[in-house]
Design a protein that fits this description.
261 residues; 8 helices; 4-stranded antiparallel β-sheet; 9-stranded mixed β-sheet; alpha/beta; globular; 32% helix
Amino acid sequence: MTASETRLPPPLFVPDDDLPVIWSPEWAPFLDIDGTLLDIAARPDDVFVPDRLIETLTAIADTCGCLALVTGRSLPQADALFGAGRFDVAANHGAVMRIGGVVCDQAGDPGAAEAMAAALRPAVDRHDGAFVEEKGHSVAVHYRAAPEAEPFLLQAAHEAIRGSGDAWRILIGKAVIEIAPQSATKGTAIARFLADPAYRRRRPFFAGDDTTDEDAFVAVAAAGGLGVLIGPERKTAARYRLPSPGAFRSWLDGSVAGRSG
């Protein structure tokens, strides 16, 4: 945790799932996927997307006139979960963005990530349960089934990016170490969305669960928006908190039905 993070207050827990939001064209919803919209699974491909969730997100997008998924997953992975081209997406932590059907690749050659994955595999394969996930423009090392391997895998990640200058950065999430382009953060992705005519002059709303979402919480706060942390209490730039993805999905359903703010 950085010095600035230690000065952050804990978010305000929201009783009775009551967030001060009424969906309208005033809002620009930005939503993380894993640990926020969806429960985290043992492996990324094992997550489950409730049919009702896609209907709810579609209703919110229709009401607001926009909605974007902001995720560490690749664009094909996000489309496989929520439907090809259904929503705008900031994929690979913002390295790849799709707005209004137009894809913008911010990261350049995906072959660099493939080479990074190949460099990591010998170290990762020494730990049962750990595995490398190639995501096009970024790489993830998962160790949920091998938590004792974290320090060794983190060292391997640092060794993998050594010599690459400032091209890459390491993100530590929930039982995952990600290597992503230095220029790609969820905060810069939201700033790019807000500069687009489809999102301009709207108040940003972002929900996320992980420390890798803090850039986005800071970005929406700076733009006068509202951040919601999903999960246990911790110091964060988010203003509010809900305890779980299930609670967040319930609130989303209620917000569409008009039962909550």
